[in-house]
Amino acid sequence: MPDQQANPTLPKAPTGIEGFDDLTYGGLPAGRPSLICGAAGCGKTLFATTFLVNGATRFDEPGVFMSFEERADDLAANVASLGYDLDGLVAAGKLAIDHVRVERSEIEETGEYDLEGLFIRLGFAVDSIGAKRVVLDTIETLFAGFTDPSLLRAELRRLFGWIKERGLTAVITGERGEGQLTRQGLEEYVSDCVVLLDNRVEDQITTRRLRVVKYRGSSHGTNEYPFLIDHEGISVLPVTSAELDYAVPGGVLSTGIAGLDTMLGPGGFHRGSSILISGQAGTGKTMLASSLVDAACRRGERCLVFAFEESGDQIIRNARSLGLDLDQHVAAGRLRFEAARPSLFGLETHLARMHRDLDQFRPQVVVIDPISALRGSASILQATLLRMIDLIKARGITAVFTTLRGDGSLMRDDDLGVSSLMDAWIKLQNLEANGERTRTLYVMKARGMSHSNQIREFLMSTGGIRLVDAYIGAAGVLTGTARLIQETQEKAVSELRLRETERSLRDVARRRSAIERQIEELRAGLDAAQDEEERLRAEDRLRAARVEAERQELTARRSAAE
User: Fold this and answer.
1) pTM of full prediction above 0.70
2) Nearest C-alpha neighbor of 348 from the set 374, 369, 372, 368
């Protein structure tokens, strides 16, 4: 969108049409006529009706709808499917509908022919309800009988001047002309605001676009903007800003897969990130995204899934094979599926629907599955995806994109890959070896965090998704059965080594026991030798004492004999 005015001074009347008031910075010029032009089927009458209904119900501005083609009953029936109760507004005095029958065969230009009768009729309707808004649908029918260009120009200027004098905010619809905005080529010059509606068909797909051609006294968006008409009315998708000034939310989002969280430094992805899951068919992209959605819903967060290949019920059914009950989250209002074939709408219409759904549901996590299903030229696809990413990032939403391409590109034969637009990229790949196919997972990139650069085997079962470390050794990287065989062989070798170690330990224990017995025997012999030594020493001391006693006794006897 263009840069917004700092201090807009022109009074404006909001239309209440989502997106349109944003690109015009407030709505249509108040008290002035605006021209809504386009070919048949573009939505001119619906735009004008929405302008009046919103004015009466939301902005307390009664309105007058003067139709030159549709009768009041037909007009009320046509917009009833959108929830517009025109009859109720008429009964409440907030809306007046006047059908002016104009037949070309009954029109004759004579004398001073003018629109004075129309002014009287319109003025009476305005005064009867105190109208602030007026719609004239369509102006070509009113001037169908005029053949004098000068008279036509004069009456057009009179009509627009009369509207300004009464201070009415008017919407005048006009049919697209050949090589000019309207058939007469005059209305766009006297209107203060001109909005061109276009219903374009490309590759058998219709896309509605809106462009503000001019807006006197105010800046406005100058690009073409896709707009959507469905059961909820009109919504316009403003082109996102080229400035990368969106705020970055804090926190980490767990994937719900323990093995994947451990591969990411913070234990998950940064909130508000754009995550790409790429891989060939059958690698588990949708189921990986479903696991992330299930984890987010279990935390109480709202998730929105845009599916382009499968219905919501089919995804729910397939997720049950992993033990995921997504149906309970849908019933709780935390999960919503928006499924549509890519060929049902053009790229810009898909973008407009996404814009409306994001604003209504306000999710914390969004899944687009897959972006490779979208059709268009590489440059248009990349531009659409860039706007899609900006649309989501500006709201601080974590987005998960899946793509069928293993290299992260949108098409096989282009070099405009989308991986560079993503904050994180998970690559799923099938490895074929030994007659089997094994799923593997890589974390190719993750901005703002450390992450594992190793391959993981990707297993899906009724217990959920589990990541297994691949075998890395002298034989290379092995997965699947080859990994199991190698692990079995290593386990057998380990068990053999264990048995040999245990046998050696038993031999050592036996030798140790024998040596300990020998030591005990030697220790017993040593003790006996010590005892024998003590006995001999005691006997020797006793003998010496006896000899000494006998010598003393002999000495004593000699002394007595003398």
Assistant:
1) no
2) 374
